[in-house]
Design brief:
The complex is a heterodimer.
Chain A lengths: L2 H26 L4 H17 L15 H4 L15 H4 L10 E6 L2 E2 L12 E4 H6 L4 H7 L8 H8 L5 E5 L9 E7 L5 E4 L2 E6 L4 E10 L4 E12 L4 E8 L5 E11 L4 E8 L4 E10 L5 E10 L4 E10 L5 E10 L4 E10 L7 E10 L5 E4 L2 E4 L5 E9 L3 H8 L5 H17 L5 H15 L8
Chain B lengths: L4 H10 L12 E3 L6 H10 L4 H15 L23 E3 L13 H10 L3 H8 L2 E6 L2 E5 L2 H6 L3 E4 H7 L1 H7 L10 H9 L4 E5 L9 E5 L11 E6 L4 E9 L7 E3 L2 E6 L4 E9 L11 E11 L4 E8 L4 E4 L2 E4 L5 E10 L4 E4 L2 E4 L5 E10 L4 E10 L7 E10 L5 E10 L5 E10 L2 H9 L4 H12 L1 H4 L4 H15 L5
Parallel strand pairs in B: 3-7, 6-8, 7-9, 8-11, 9-12, 10-13, 11-13, 12-14, 13-15, 13-16, 14-17, 15-18, 16-19, 17-20, 18-21, 19-21, 20-22, 21-23, 22-24
Antiparallel strand pairs in B: 1-2, 3-4, 5-6
Classes of the chains: A alpha/beta, B alpha/beta.
Amino acid sequence: MKPETLNKKLIMSFKDKLLTSYIALEDYLEFDSPIHDVRNKAIKIFEEKGFPTKKEEAWKYTSLNKLLKQDYSIISNKENNVEWKKVRPYFLHEIDTYKIVFIDGVYSSFLSETTHDDVDVCLMSAALTKSKFKPVIETYFNKIAKKDGITSLNTAFTKDGAYINIPAHKEVQKPIEIINFSTGSEAAMFLQPRNLIVVGENAHVQIIERHQSLSENKVLTNSVTEIFAEKRAYVDYYKIQNDTDTSSLIDNTYISQEHQSICHVHTFAFGGDLVRNNLNFYQKGERCDSTLKGVTILEGNQHVDHNTLVHHTAPNCESHQDYKGIFAESSTGVFNGKILVDKIAQKIDAFQQNNNILIDDKATINAKPQLEIFADDVKCSHGCTIGQFDEDALFYLRSRGIGVKESQALLMYAFANTVLESVKIPELKMRINKLIANKIGVSLGFEL
Amino acid sequence: MKYTEDDLKKELETKEYEYGFFTDIESDTFPVGLDEDVVRAISKRKEEPEWMTEWRLEAFRYWQTMEEPEWANVNYEKPDFQSISYYSAPTNKPKYGSLDEVDPELLDTFKKLGISIEEQKRLTGVAVDVVIDSVSVATSFKKSLNEMGIIFCSISEAIKEHPELVKKYIGTVVPPRDNFYAALNSAVFSDGSFCYIPKGVRCPMELSTYFRINQGGTGQFERTLLIADEGSYVSYLEGCTAPSRDENQLHAAVVELIAMDDAEIKYSTVQNWYPGNKEGKGGVFNFVTKRGICEKNAKISWTQVETGSAVTWKYPSCILKGDNSIGEFYSVAVTNNFQQADTGTKMIHVGKNTRSTIISKGISAGNSQNSYRGLVKIMPGADKARNFSECDSLLMGNKCGAHTFPYIEVKNKTAMVEHEATTSKIGEDQIFYCNQRGISTEKAIALIVNGFSKDVLNKLPMEFAVEAQKLLEISLEGSVG
């Protein structure tokens, strides 16, 4: 058999396996009928559309073929415990936080710290079954998630994830951490967490999301998060992607913003084999403010694809995008950013910036910053650069006795600083600085 | 009485396409439809050698297996390729010794277009290879060019008289299998221009060709092949206007440029084909494949002013194959009413120290859609490649759209690539400033648009720059209010 047809067969078999498992899952789960309908519809969409291929414009530079050839186990019910000592470094343990922790897709009550005082920080599975959450689920669940193949697959397999509901005028006192661990109990694991976050009027919340594999076994995560920011709500969301080289992540985040809400998403992509971030903002009310920032530092054969969309449907809004990438060895970076401005969305100020540095000969960057504008009274711009370290700056530092590696590291910090400086949790900022230092293998001996 | 913007709007809505007239020249037109026999017949009619017929047939056979692409950001009713006549040539076709022998009706057409041949000859020193409905009718200044060894003739003549050159280069830059429309063009191209500049020769005048679609229902399939041998220089102008017609007309041209070591080609286009009426009915479909290849130290510069056509779909590209080669692309695209344009460029950096510059200005008004789509690709071997891209869009009114789709693919760490794009409208303060100084709003807009497009217009040869400025004004009149 030709390798191509073999590939196709393997991918097909994974799809078939998912479709069969779905039937088994449906018999096992006890959800309300509306949820059943949503899921049944979703699996049909997935059956029809399947996994995206490179032929689709949005997936032009990222192929999932390599990942889909694995024989993943799809549903795991075993509660695998891990020692606190082993996973402690992955928590922001310097400060007190709420924690929603999953191990191999199963909720770990031992590691978590949830609440129902004033605010709901709990489990998706609980929210989907208990009647008191019903109105919220009915209003928000699967309302803004795209109906594409990969998101529908997640919707169909909705089992668990984080459920956060902040009522109006409440400020969550401590950050919320959502962490998905995988222990490697199976040779290859396919995880599909589903999160729903509703932030009421005037409410404030800070969330940190992380996916972490604890073994060398293969993991593929297809995560979907829906965030609703009501009037004047404030959402500060951080994604830390520093997983092992054997884990891959497809992250789909959908954010809907109402009047005067503010929403910041920071993505720090340092690890993982293949990472695809689909980050979608829908501005539905006037005077919204959206910020999308990211730092990507890659090496080896890593591949990270940032696919962003900011859809302005209301006037007088702002959006800011700032993505920095540093690519070493034979890593590949993709930036595909899109700003869409509707006819009625006048007086929009949309800005998009993407700067990249290629360090090694085999590194590749593919950028596609797009503007689609239908309103005339707008200020939209984007800038994209690809370059190297400034020789003069390097020379300046070296002439003052700083080594090559350290000089480069300093310049890298400076390069990434516009993103780092807007991280609002000091401990998290320090943590990210350390991650960057580890990633580039230098210690500068001072905090930035 | 005060002449208000409303008056102007009314006037413009009722204004017919200025160059819309139809010259009644007896045309020798093929029946509609396309199959191998038609391709053979075209080839035979043009008295082409066997290899050319085969080349066309191969392209045709491949074309049959292809599907019309749909990825562009344009909407239109697809042409029915079986309802187009693939050959149309004026019947009175003797080789004229002097202009007096030319069909007076034809000369009249040129006068209306403002390209009286005598005028051109005497005043501007431009050699005009006039293409009317696919067949070259008059070639001027041929003699003086011949003395320098420059070959400038129609491509059908070149196939007969310089088969070795045509055979060697045709399809090397745009292969017949390149894309759907290039394949179609390769199969049925009716005529076009051929130009060869020998080693070290600097072409003393701007070579120029005017296209125009005359016979109703005829597709226009031009083929241009331009070869600049080592160390030579040529500046080539292409200008177009077409008469008013209701049904959509298809134009699928192929332009191939070859710049050998140290050569320089400057290719300028002013395109003002019939854009359809204000309801978006009619107009020309302009699906063109233009590409140039640069050898060592060579330079290709594309300059275009696009104001016409109902649907434009074109990407003049440069393959920077040789070390130190340079590619440039300067474009102004104006869309009004229901026009749609998806245009841009591709810069493929293969050689070391290659440089490219892209300046694209899009202006959309009325209900039009204007897209920039460009690719900058730095191959692994293209050390120290440098690219600068700037795409600015200007929107007038809230019914139009401006889109930017840049693709940047870099596989070399020493590359420097910069891309920036902005979208804005004409500032009220700018207009107010002009009004204050006694400049009417309409004039102020023309002034601002000219300023906005200055970077590109400056790159045009003198006589084109004047025409282009006027075209911009005409295209945008009445679009603001």
